[in-house]
Amino acid sequence: MEIGNLEKVLRVGEGRRQKRLQEQAAYITSLEPEFEQMSAVELQGKTAEFRQRLENGESLDELVFEAFAAVREARKRASNQRMFDVQLMGGIVLHEGDIAEMKTGEGKTFVASLALYLNGLAGRGTHLVTVNDYLAQRDAEWNRPVFESLGMSVAYIETMMPFDARKAAYAADVTYGTNSEFGFDYLRDNMAVSLDGLVQRGHAYGIVDEVDSILIDEARTPLIISGEPETAAQLYYDFARVVTQLIPFRASVGDPKGAAETAGADYEFDEKHKTVGVTPQGVAKVERAIRIDNLYAPENTQLVNHLYQALKAQSLYQLDVDYVIQDGEVKIVDEFTGRIMEGRRWSEGLHQAIEAKEGVKIQEEHQTLATITLQNYFRLYEKLAGMTGTAKTEEKEFVEIYDLDVVEIPTNVAVARADENDLVFKTKEGKFAAVVRDIEERTREGQPVLVGTIAVETSEYLSQLLTRKGIKHNVLNAKEHAREAEIIKDAGQRSAVTIATNMAGRGVDIQLGDGVVEAGGLYVLGTERHEARRIDNQLRGRSGRQGDPGETRFYLSGEDDLVRLFAGDRISGIMERFKIPEDQPMEAKILSRQIEGAQKKVEEQNFVIRKNTLKYDDVLNRHRQRIYEQRRQVLEGEDLSDQIKLWIEEVVEDTVHVFTEEEYAEEWDLEALTNAMAGLYQTEITAAELQQDLGEISRETLVEEFQADARDEYEAKEEEFGAELMRELERFVVLQVVDMRWREHLENMEALREGVHLRAMAQKDPLVEYTAEGERMFTELGRVIRSEVVLHLFHAELAPEEAQQQLAQQSQTTNGSIHYEHETSAGAAAIAAAGGGEAIAAGGPSAAGVAAQTVHASPNEKLGRNDPCWCGSGKKFKKCHGA
Q1: According to the model, what pLDDT value does residue 827 have?
Q2: Residues near 652 by Cβ (< 8 Å), separated by ≥ 6?
Q3: Are strands 275-278 and 267-270 parallel, antiparallel or unpaired?
Q4: % of the chain surpassing 90 pLDDT
Q5: Cα–Cα distance between 877 and 883 in angstroms, integer?
Q6: Among 196, 375, 577, 634, which is most buried by a count of CB atoms within 10 Å?
């Protein structure tokens, strides 16, 4: 089917929908007498009745007509304004989850109240998204009498609102607010440490006012919450200096336990498995060097990670082998291809440690804590709708990105505005001289003029020209939204001249003053075409509301950016050929069509750019949804014990596989394997035991043996702490590790995003590369989270009272400038005392950090399988006399 024919079919569908909407609006009007007879109490009682009917199995669609009739009656009583049938049609479109395109002055603010009331009956909260705090507050107050007379609550959110007031606002049936406030609240909710810290109730239904402005213009940049870096760069430099003074020990195959300590070394490193370990002697040296009493004290957990990463940087990563320094930056070298991996950074602080080792600038300005694009935020809504005066030109984008159709709602009174052809001048000077003459003539006749510019500089330049001519005028390009509304309101008075930059989303109608209708109504003069047609249409739409007379015209020049880039040669050629003077315009339909064609090209380019940006964010969005879902499960108090047990088995299996990569069992380093397992949990299994007990060693038998041993150890830990505290501890540790590693993942994905476009030079699709690499990084993120959670749960020890208080205090804040003020998680202090802490990403535990175990003195005493044996051998009971 050809595009032209397809459009005809769509137009037929639109015609059918218009007819259906008109019939539905007429039916609502037929209910009017019945609702007029109701008392205030009876009208308010309809809300309870509707909610009861919903509970009884009726759908919202079955309540549309009566609910809209109730709102219309409530509006009439509250403000003596009866809603038109076209407004009811717009309300039905909003309820159906599409965009209602309604011209300026058709009362969109009232139209939204119809669909908000109907969808609010479900009791899950509805959101009205607008462009600034002033309009959010004003529209909530305008509609409050209507909602409250029907027994429904309404509230608004605004910037810098206190937490309790914000939470209460979301608890209302209808909540007004700006796109950025709704988006940031969603991100903040997914950084909360307890259910009490959440404000949003979900995303059941939302209406976006000025939908083209918010979902298209403002969707170019994502919402980002950032904080100060987790640790000052100076710490990395300090540790880089300290580790150069430590004595290293290179681990070899078959080294017995404690070989590094016996050799008098401060730390050992294993090049094959890329691991490091510190001896007690090394710990003491570090404590002296950085002037602290106990490296493994709860408040110093982050320092342990710094030490381990500094040791890795010093001993395992070599300049011009693993990385190079280019333009003052550390860049990773791919070990397989030898190529530089642009946009990649090592995680867990290793990259910063290497930067510190080499003395280059550490790349850690501000850390992104959470981010989302507006497109992906609004796609969270189960049902989304929108309204604006200008959406038809962007319908393709609305359908493709948000699955929203645009429905044109007819005006209540036919439009009487005259839209004149553009006037095109050779130069900007000639254009502005003509603009001033036109304004002067109009104001002399008493006609108000609204001048639209696309840049603040143009507003100021024109203001100077008018001032020289002695023409009084107002300039509107500030961000004081309340003052803007006042200026716009008065823009329709006799001889008023108002210069405005981008008139979208002002939310105020221009009322015509006395004698203005006779003078021809409001004259709208555009000094330049915007790159998007709908912005021009928004400016035009300010004139001719509700059947008022009006006139609009655009003044252009061959030097305007849009004209110059897309039609400049042709226009200047025509002007040269006909020798048209600078101050004489050309006026022809063909020129206007050419300009419109140029605008379409720019719109298409911008759509492609936004779509491409969204494709990249969709990759991150899949990661975000999985992480946020996991966090929500933890916050809701879900029992994680089964999941943790699976993670333990997985981490144990991964560890076995790392040390049994070789094909033949004789080549496996069982000493290194048992050392690694002892670092993960307190196992007493030795390499000799494995040889003796397992006889014919296979990878599977090793996995089974260690998994059974780790399970026993974990059960003993649970017995020691008690099941309730253990569940709380699991939730606390998971939350801390997930948050820390997620922030790091965001940083790594951003670095990848910045560098991946260079791969196009190697004939690779950057998006395909970003998707594949991103998925690999996310898989690795999951592995790191699981192994860290398991490590910290195994090494959690109840601390003395002083450390308990310190950790409880620490758990109130996150790193950097973000503060968790609402943590009320039960048992948080006890969990912190059990080793949760704030910065969970410490390196492997050291002997210095493990509490000494009591040896039982009597063979008759009741022992657990994992308790030390009564005989004093140092082995567990199950491996000694309990075997």
Answers
A1: 29
A2: 677, 680, 703, 706, 707, 710
A3: antiparallel
A4: 36
A5: 7
A6: 375
- Give the Cα-Cα-Cα angle 703, 312, 675 (nearest 5 degrees): 30
| Average confidence score pLDDT of the chain | 81
Residue among 636, 574, 566, 661 nearest 604 (CA): 566
For 391-436, what is each residue's pLDDT tens digit? 888 888 899 999 999 999 988 888 888 888 888 888 889 899 999 9
Residue-wise pLDDT tens digits, 622-662:
999 999 998 998 888 888 889 999 999 999 999 888 888 88
Distances (CA, A) of 832 to 560, 741, 795, 803, 826: 64, 19, 13, 9, 11
Residue 511, amino acid: Q
Strand, helix or coil for residue 751: helix
Torsion angle defined by CA atoms of residues 83, 86, 92 and 96, in that order, rounded to the nearest 10 degrees: -140
Token pair belonging to 814: 């996150």
Query: Under a CB-based contact definition with an 8 Å cutoff, are residues 589 and 583 in contact?
Result: no
Question: Which whole-number Å values give the CA distances from 298 to 678, 746, 809, in the listed order?
Answer: 21, 27, 11
DSSP assignment of 456-511 equals HHHHHHHHHHHHHTT---EEE--S-HHHHHHHHHGGGSTT-EEEEE--TT------
Do the beta carbons of residue 73 and residue 36 sit within 8 Å? yes
The pLDDT of 59-85, averaged and rounded, is 95
Whether residue 820 contacts residue 192, with contact meaning beta carbons closer than 8 Å, is answered with yes
pLDDT: is 713 or 333 the higher one? 713
Mean pLDDT of 469-494: 77
| 3-class DSSP assignment, residue 734 | helix
Determine the distance from the C-alpha atom of residue 229 to the mean position of all C-alpha atoms in its chain, rounded to a whole number.
Answer: 19
**Highest mean pLDDT of the ranges 435-449, 553-567, 847-861:** 435-449
H or E segment to which residue 277 belongs:
strand 275-278
Structural tokens at position 215? 């979902």
Q: Which of 779, 706, 672, 687 lies closest to 272, judged by CA?
A: 672
In 10 A of CB 561, how many CB atoms? 13
Token output for 827: 């048992």
Q: What is the pLDDT of residue 846?
A: 28
Q: How far apart are the first and last CA of the chain?
A: 80
Residue identified by tokens 């890329």 is: 274
Q: Is the pLDDT of residue 137 over 70?
A: yes
Question: Token digits for 111?
Answer: 């139209």
Which pLDDT does position 229 carry in this prediction? 59
The yes-or-no verdict on residue 809 having pLDDT over 60 is no
Token pair of 350 as six digits = 């290793």
In this predicted model, what pLDDT tens digit does every residue of 711-753 receive, in sequence order? Answer: 999 998 888 888 888 888 888 888 888 988 898 898 888 878 8
Strands in 275-278's sheet, in edge-to-edge order, are 248-250, 267-270, 275-278
pLDDT above 70: percentage of residues in the chain: 82
Q: Answer for the pair 438, 585: CB distance below 8 angstroms, yes or no.
A: no
| Confidence (pLDDT) at 589 | 74
Dump the DSSP string for 331-385: EEBPTTT--B-TT---TTTHHHHHHHHHTPPP--SSEEEEEE-HHHHHTT-SEEE
Alpha helices in 277-327 (DSSP H): 280-289, 301-315
Cβ(245)–Cβ(281) below 8 Å: no
Q: Which tokens hold the place of 630?
A: 């996991």
Q: How many CB atoms lie within 10 A of CB 385?
A: 25
Tokens representing 286 are 């570090």
CA–CA dist 560, 125 (Å, integer): 47
Is residue 782 classed exposed, middle or buried when 0-12, 13-18 and 19+ CB atoms within 10 A define those classes? middle
Query: What's the whole-number mean pLDDT along residues 181-209?
Result: 92
Three-state secondary structure call for residue 18: helix
248-250 and 267-270 strand pairing: parallel
SS3 letters across 623-647: HHHHHHHHHHHHHCCCCCHHHHHHH
Contact between 550 and 524 (Cβ < 8 Å): yes
Residues 154/143, Cβ–Cβ less than 8 Å = yes
3-state DSSP assignment of residue 836: coil
